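Closing statement on the zinc ion sub-project.
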Amino acid sequence: MLVECFECNHMISNKAPRCENCGISIKSSKSRCLMVIFILVGGGLGLHRLYAGLFFSGLLQIGLTFITIVSSEPVLIIGLACWLIFDFLIIVFGLFKDSNSKAIA
Ligand SMILES: [Zn+2]
């Protein structure tokens, strides 16, 4: 699958360790395997997002989980589930970006 280099916008394979145009490393140093474990163990606690350095959305996810548990609102439960399923899928496909916009592949 082709992804856009965040530095020069050149289209490169997401399996390439670095951009062939500008030479910048495009892969995150974070482990995708750990990301999968984190979302399965503590997805609702935003563990995978905190690990990826995405502190704002990680805390937002914790807050949303807390509000969802307290309120038991079906709309919130569905929304949170969709967010976590979406996160899970992009992690599995290696498209999740860390705080430096590098793909965790
Ligand atoms: Zn580049």
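The chain has four helices and two strands. With this model delivered, the sub-project is considered complete and its resources will be redirected to Aim 3.
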